[in-house]
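Any chance you could type out a protein's amino acid sequence plus the matching backbone structure tokens because I've never seen that pairing?

——
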Amino acid sequence: MNQPQQEKIEDIDRRVAILIDGDNAQASLIEQILVEAGKFGNATIRRVYGDWTTPNMNSWKDILNIHAFQPIQQFRYSVGKNATDSAMIIDAMDILHSNHVDGFCLVSSDSDYTRLATRIRESGLLVVGIGEKKTPRAFVSACNVFIYTENLKRKSRGNGGGNGRKKTSNLTDQESELIDLVSQAMDMVGPDDDGWTRLSEVGTALRRIDPGFDPRSFGHRQLSQLVKGHSREFEMRKVANGAIIEVRLRD
């Protein structure tokens, strides 16, 4: 299995299709999935597959619109057969031949996607897999990069987030949500060994996570002013004779 390279957001122009097997993935990890996929490109296609008439898909319904995912309905035609796999594979091949993306993020722990991942790689496109540690080795090895969901940090809004950040008292819900969002963007970019991230790259990542993000919504004209206003959570510094601003989480 190839290991992910620490590429910078501003250097990545890939268009990525995120295809999720809703029968075989956790809806609670959708934000972390977006962050991980965002490290490799801009998620221009976002789809969740499953039989939306069944109760087990209920957990996905509330988050579809929030994160702009398209639900793809696939009825179960017979007991014991997973029609979702076939629908997702057919769509993936259609997307592949459309030349509209440069990579795929396949979210599932099912070995049925092994041949699909191999076929995409043979075409020279990036394949990122996301699934549980129980995922068969064949599927893991077929991907350029495979990320185990057990390694994704669960995030709980207003509870200190899931970015290793301690809860800060006297924060409003809006402030807690903002700090979680900025922390997610920093994770997407990938800090250096000392935790520093370029603020310009964090801004790009913020727009990928939330296209409606605007510092003015939080009372600041610029992102640097917004981050500086939360100095208890973040610290900033200027490098390269002041031409570059970097930011990191405080311990």
About this structure: The two ends are 33 Å apart (CA to CA).
